[in-house]
Structures are given as C-alpha cells and as structure tokens.
Design goal:
The chain is an all-alpha fold. It has 8 helices and no strands. The N and C termini lie far apart (48 Å).
Length: 188
C-alpha cells in the first residue's frame, strides 16, 4: 500500500515538475516560493489590520506569528525528522528525473513541506479572522497558499504529498489560532 502511494506521488510529481513545463512558470514560480516575494502582501495585511482595528491589531499580529511559529516548529522540528523522507531532488533513486529550479534543494527532509504548512496556516488564520469582514476576498488566501504549494512541486523541492501534509497541518493550526483569536479578542 505504501509503495503504491509513493508511486502515485512520484507520478504526480513528474506531471507537475516535467509535464507543466513552460517558460513562464520556469521564470515566475521560483520567485513565488520566496518569502520576500510576498513581503508586499504581508505589509499590506499588517497595515490594513493596524489602520482599521487599532489596539486589537496587536493580538491579531501575535496570534498570526504564533500560527507561523507553530507550523514551522511542527513541520521542521518534529515531522521532518520523524519521517526522514528525502526530497525529490536529493532522493538517490529519483533525483535524476527532477528538474530543479530552486537555488537549493534543502537537506532537512521533505515531509511535510514547511512552506505549505506556513502558508496554509496563515491562509486559514487570515480567513477565519477576516471572513466576517470580507467573506468574498478572504477565500483568496487559499488560492495564494495553493499557488505557493504548486510552486514547491514545480521547482522540484517537494512531492505532492509533502505539500498536502503541510497544508493539512497549516489548516489545522490556523483553524485553532484563528478561532481562539475570534473567541477571545476578535477584530470586530
């Protein structure tokens, strides 16, 4: 059963990493996965909350940071060492099939993707804390997180199950912190 899952995972990886190959993605997606690429979005959200919600923004920022810290800690320090899965670009049996477009491959394990956990954690936190303010736009945070996850597979540093596992971790963490925020403080 596990071998079949690995085969499907590798098949899907190759469909994305090789099958979706195009010049636009080759140029843009390595940047999409970079934290500084999203800095303007983070600054905009921070300013939006600070300007519109005053002192309530302090707890929002603290819980957003806690969301990020928990997803990073659990993914990088607990799950990656526990599963010790090699990344596609470092897997001795599979790496010759990988088109690596990232500046580095990383050596700290593949499951779960910390990028996926972090972005989906923040997406869920943002969604839960903003859905009462802007229900139609708050769903876009999941599009943003999905785009980052797709980029992780496309550039060759994660398998699809790595980003799915990270996404689930992030969604659960963001759900906990977002609901805690709304119950205790809330923006409204």
């Amino acid at each position: 059963m596990l071998q079949k899952i690995i085969e499907i995972d590798q098949y899907l990886f190759l469909k994305i990493n090789q099958g979706c190959r195009n010049a636009f993605f080759d140029t843009v997606l390595p940047f999409v996965r970079a934290a500084n690429f999203w800095a303007p979005l983070y600054i905009f959200i921070l300013l939006f909350v600070a300007i519109n919600f005053g002192k309530k923004a302090i707890w929002w920022v603290i819980l957003a940071l806690i969301t990020f810290a928990y997803t990073e800690l659990i993914s990088s320090n607990i799950l990656k060492p526990l599963f010790a899965r090699p990344r596609p670009c470092t897997d001795p049996i599979f790496s010759d099939k990988v088109r690596l477009l990232a500046n580095y491959c990383g050596g700290n394990g593949s499951f779960t993707s910390s990028h996926a956990a972090n972005h989906f954690g923040l997406a869920m936190f943002f969604y839960i804390t903003f859905k009462h303010i802007s229900p139609q736009y708050s769903k876009l945070f999941f599009v943003w997180a999905s785009f980052v996850c797709f980029a992780q597979v496309y550039v060759g540093v994660h398998y699809p199950t790595d980003v799915m596992g990270g996404a689930l971790l992030g969604i659960f963490t963001g759900w906990l912190t977002g609901n805690f925020h709304n119950k205790k403080k809330g923006l409204l």
